[in-house]
């Protein structure tokens, strides 16, 4: 009997030990839950504080510009993580998400995806907010034709992705799913044909690829296989001449190029014939100092990023300054070393805020016959106005 009592006592102690360990686990879980809740609440409070939108910019004729949001992380594309997943993240650490390091160029495709080149990350980010998917394209470790310094990015009508590499002197082509397909400008021995390819534009209907070679002060027009058909421009300050040409944009029948060190944007026809130029060097209203990304809205207004002043200036066809937005800073609607710019078919404006490691999205509401209507369910009809026009 004494032996049985001893066994029962041992069993009871074991059960108490198991229950104690279980409660300890529960208490630990509850503690982490509290930490997770506090951490999540603190994070949400910070996000709320940092997400204050700047006032709408109201213009003549009922036009306006609104700030929508900014993004910088792969995590922002993914579906919301469950509470217990966040608890695990607190205990074990979050998985390694990609993020913007030194973004430069941006383009949107027919699926609504936002494609951003990143020089420091040595690759290209694809943010698909609609499908809640993210992909990162890189060839940094490729044995043949590695992509080393991705610069500008564009897409064709089939959403194939073209990336210039300013260091290797080549153009890399990926399909719409992000699979590497080919390289343009790779010579025997691995050298690149271009000295420093920067801006790129593709006219798939005409079968033409346009690329600026910044160090050669030229624009190369090629067929879709990469054979050079025509060379446009030369070094100089005259019409149709360039001093460090960078960004390119096709707009209707026009070929638009940022003539960076001539402090202007030149508009040519598709054959390279000069039509007109916008901009002059200076620090006043309508002057350009460090032109970067360019784009056109549905009313034909030209948007020019100025990396030095941290603003985007908007001009009409005659070169008159209509308005500007931005300014140096880290807040929403402010920029530090802005670079690329893209305007999609709904007049959403994507600005690469490079030093702040993010892309900011604005929305222009025009009133002309060609103005693109806003179909967003979350459009903000009321906001504090900002009627600023001149820098």
Description:
The chain has 2 helices and 26 strands. With 391 residues, it is α+β, with helices and mostly antiparallel strands. A hairpin with a 5-residue loop joins β7 (150-155) and β8 (161-165). α1 packs across α2 (83-92). It is globular.
Number of helices: 2
Number-wise, the strands total 26
Contiguous runs where pLDDT drops below 50 for at least 5 residues? 1-50, 374-391
Secondary-structure-derived class: alpha+beta
Q: Portion of residues in helices?
A: 10-25%
What is the CA-atom radius of gyration, in angstroms? 27 Å
Concise account of the structure shown:
The chain is an alpha+beta fold and about 400 residues long. The chain contains 2 helices and 26 strands. Helix 1 (about 1-50) packs across helix 2.
Give the tags:
single chain; alpha+beta; six-stranded mixed sheet; disordered N terminus; disordered C terminus
Fold blueprint:
Blueprint: H1 2-50, E1 56-58, E2 64-71, H2 83-92, E3 103-108, E4 114-118, E5 123-128, E6 133-137, E7 150-155, E8 161-165, E9 170-174, E10 180-184, E11 197-203, E12 208-213, E13 218-222, E14 228-232, E15 245-251, E16 254-259, E17 264-269, E18 274-278, E19 291-296, E20 302-306, E21 311-315, E22 321-326, E23 338-343, E24 348-353, E25 358-365, E26 385-386
Parallel strand pairs: 1-26
Antiparallel strand pairs: 1-2, 2-25, 3-4, 4-5, 5-6, 7-8, 8-9, 9-10, 11-12, 12-13, 13-14, 15-16, 16-17, 17-18, 19-20, 20-21, 21-22, 23-24, 24-25
Helix pairs in contact: 1-2
């Amino acid at each position: 009997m004494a032996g049985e009592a001893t066994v029962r006592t041992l069993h009871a102690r074991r059960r108490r030990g198991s229950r104690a360990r279980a409660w300890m686990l529960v208490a630990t879980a509850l503690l982490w839950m509290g930490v997770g809740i506090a951490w999540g609440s603190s994070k949400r409070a910070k996000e709320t504080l940092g997400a204050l939108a700047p006032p709408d910019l109201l213009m003549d004729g009922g036009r306006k510009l609104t700030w929508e949001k900014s993004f910088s992380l792969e995590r922002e594309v993914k579906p919301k993580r469950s509470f217990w997943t966040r608890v695990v993240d607190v205990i074990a650490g979050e998985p390694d998400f990609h993020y913007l390091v030194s973004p430069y160029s941006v383009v949107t495709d027919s699926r609504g995806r936002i494609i951003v080149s990143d020089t420091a990350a040595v690759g290209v980010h694809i943010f698909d907010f609609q499908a809640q998917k993210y992909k990162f394209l890189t060839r940094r470790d490729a044995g043949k034709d590695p992509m080393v310094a991705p610069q500008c990015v564009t897409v064709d009508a089939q959403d194939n992705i073209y990336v210039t590499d300013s260091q290797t002197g080549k153009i890399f082509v990926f399909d719409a799913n992000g699979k590497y397909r080919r390289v343009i400008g790779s010579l025997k021995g691995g050298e690149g044909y271009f000295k420093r390819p920067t801006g790129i534009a593709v006219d798939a209907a005409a079968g033409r690829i346009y690329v600026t070679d910044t160090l050669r002060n030229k624009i190369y027009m090629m067929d879709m296989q990469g054979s050079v058909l025509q060379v446009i421009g030369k070094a100089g300050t005259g019409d149709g001449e360039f001093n460090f040409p960078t960004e390119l944009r096709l707009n209707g029948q026009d070929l638009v190029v940022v003539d960076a060190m001539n402090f202007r944007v030149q508009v040519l026809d598709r054959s390279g014939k000069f039509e007109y130029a916008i901009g002059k060097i200076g620090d006043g209203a309508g002057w350009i100092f460090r032109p970067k990304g360019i784009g056109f809205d549905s009313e034909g207004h030209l948007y020019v990023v100025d990396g030095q002043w941290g603003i985007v200036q908007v001009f009409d066809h005659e070169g008159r300054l209509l308005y500007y937005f931005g300014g140096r800073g880290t807040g929403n609607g402010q920029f530090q070393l802005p670079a690329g710019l893209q305007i999609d078919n709904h007049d959403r404006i994507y600005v690469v805020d490079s030093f702040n490691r993010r892309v900011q999205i604005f929305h222009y509401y025009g009133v002309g016959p060609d103005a693109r209507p806003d179909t967003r369910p979350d459009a903000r009809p009321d906001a504090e106005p900002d009627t600023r026009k001149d820098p």
